[in-house]
Amino acid sequence: MEENHSQEFLIHKQIILSDAMNVWLLVLLFFFLYFWVRLVLNEAIFIPLPISTIRKMLKLAKVNKKDLLYDLGAGDGRVVIIAAKEFGCKAVGIERSALLAAICRFRIRRAGLQDKIKIIEKNYFDVNLSRATVITTYLSKRQNEKLAPKLKKELRKGTRIVSASHVFPGLKLIKKIKTGHFYTYLYKI
Ligand SMILES: C[S@@+](CC[C@H](N)C(=O)[O-])C[C@H]1O[C@@H](n2cnc3c(N)ncnc32)[C@H](O)[C@@H]1O
Fold this sequence. Notes:
It is a single chain. Strand 2 (about 90-95), helix 4 (about 100-110) and strand 3 (about 115-120) form a beta-alpha-beta unit. The protein has helices at about 1-40, 50-60, 80-85, 100-110, 140-155; strands at about 70, 90-95, 115-120, 135, 160-165, 170-180, 180-189. The longest helix has about 40 residues, at about 1-40. By secondary structure, the protein is an alpha/beta fold. The chain has a 7-stranded mixed beta sheet with strand order 3-2-1-4-5-7-6, with helices on one face. It is built from 5 helices and 7 strands; from the N terminus they run ααβαβαββαβββ. Helix content is about 45%, strand content about 20%. The chain folds into 2 domains: about 1-40; about 50-189, Vaccinia Virus protein VP39 (Rossmann fold, 3-Layer(aba) Sandwich). S-adenosylmethionine binds near residues 44 and 49.
């Protein structure tokens, strides 16, 4: 009787474990498909920059407390948070994903930086960028190609643009530095 009981318990445990594994496999498959489709479309998917690279980018652009920095595709908010906290500027993060925008707002509240940072939950092509003195990006080749004309048209003279990993065709390159396994580019309007 007792043997039957423990056998039943083992079978039950195995079923639960295999169900859990199936759920994890489905989650993995979903993420694989998500990244694959976005990569094939050359979209800028959420891949956060290392903190050390962000500091190098902000130093390269000489960000200071007089600046208003816009991060196009703010992800989890790390760029705007470091810019405001360590470089003293005001910052705006533009992020189209509702989930990531919520994470940004949560992290900003936790850091007590609500007075210095604003998150706009929108496509950056639909946002007027003319107030920015510094723009930061970590996007894709295709996104940069599409963005370059907007930046040229909208930004004021003297605005600095720092782009991690991808160039902005047609903009005036000031400097490029090696940051990890890719280059970061500084442009000026
Ligand atoms: C590579 S991540 C960079 C995140 C963050 N800036 C960083 O450096 O850690 C690119 C981000 O851009 C966002 N994004 C892509 N296209 C966008 C668009 N058209 N408008 C707003 N956000 C966009 C993605 O959701 C993603 O969070």
